[in-house]
Amino acid sequence: MNATITGWGKALPPSVLTNSDLESIMDTSDEWITSRSGIKERRISHVETSDMATIAAHRALAAAGLEPADIDLIIVATCSPDTLIPSAAAFVQAKLGAKNAGAVDLNAACSGFVYSLVFGANMIRGGTHKRVLVIGAEKLHYYMDFTDRSTSVLFGDGAGAVVLEPTEADEGLLSSELGMDGDSAEFLCIPGFGTIGDRVPDLPSEVGVQMDGQEVFRRAVTMMGDSSVRVVEEAGIGFEDVDILIPHQANQRIIDATARRLKLPSERVFMNIHAYGNTSAATIPIALTEALEEGRIRPGANIVFAAFGGGLSWAAAVLRWGTRTEPIATSDVDFPPSERTTMELLQPNFDFFGLEEL
Ligand code: UT7
Hints:
Bound molecules: oxa(dethia)-CoA
Helix content: 25-40%
Radius of gyration: 19 Å
CATH architecture of the largest domain: 3-Layer(aba) Sandwich
Shape: globular
Oligomer: single chain
Number of domains: 2
Strand order of the largest sheet: 1-7-6-4-5
């Protein structure tokens, strides 16, 4: 018995923040952001993390031909939940009306979706669950300090979801590796939440992303490359058998380095970082959905997922796709209209971090 992906969906909020918008609020340039990261624009959400997750979930359920009541477990990978309690997964369970599902959040930062995919697949393999909804959803703009140009240009909002179901066919999760280097946590963190801090953080910057970009970059290249090589070997296939690498979208140069490690030409690597930036746990399910929409996944394809992020965490997996690459149905659930401009959505950040009103 294995677990395979039968449904997929994404939810990208309509408001766009371009590099040229960023040029108007900080000392940066489209040229710098594009050449250093590959990012051209990102989305800014007017709804909460669980709302994006729920829209992606509706679309994934339709693609699988299932109803919310068919799901028995929901895992939401996120580091930007609406509240700590209830979890984002609890909101999703209620908003979906998934009355037969248990629900839990998983925080492994940007590696969260691959962690959750492996957890969900192993619940199915263990026989305790039959239909698991795995979602990556983030409202990262909440954390963005636009007085810090080295981090705030990189991140965006969005959600993606997959449905996992049991299979006895030669498909599904073939291998995986979950890792953590907790000794290096300081290089990428959001220290302002949790019992470690004062009840009211005295330094506003503590609720923003703190990152040593070069250190994270170096480690990401090593972690993603090494773990990808190991899961490909563990799956019993060669690099030449890898049809597509769907990596975490944090930096185009990190993705290029990982692809070189796996000796994969660019046509066998999926990249959409230019459009959405780094949406943390949401990048891989969004990318998977777009790879399917673009016809880049054939029946029986061997897919490598590879991620890294805060913790410092990493995760990689090989999954063999099944036979169906088209959704069974589509959902008409969509975002509510947004009444505010992108800059109006960001005003609370400008106020909190002390950026002068535009
Ligand atoms: O999911 C995990 C999330 N984190 C990551 O993936 C981060 C991994 N790291 C990276 O992606 C890259 O390190 C960055 C894109 C963050 C930075 O690229 P870099 O090539 O490592 O640049 P750098 O940090 O070495 O900065 C080079 C220069 C500096 O100026 P000086 O000191 O050379 O004068 C920075 O102050 O670029 C400057 N800089 C900027 N300039 C214009 C930093 N941010 C910006 C900016 N616009 N937004």
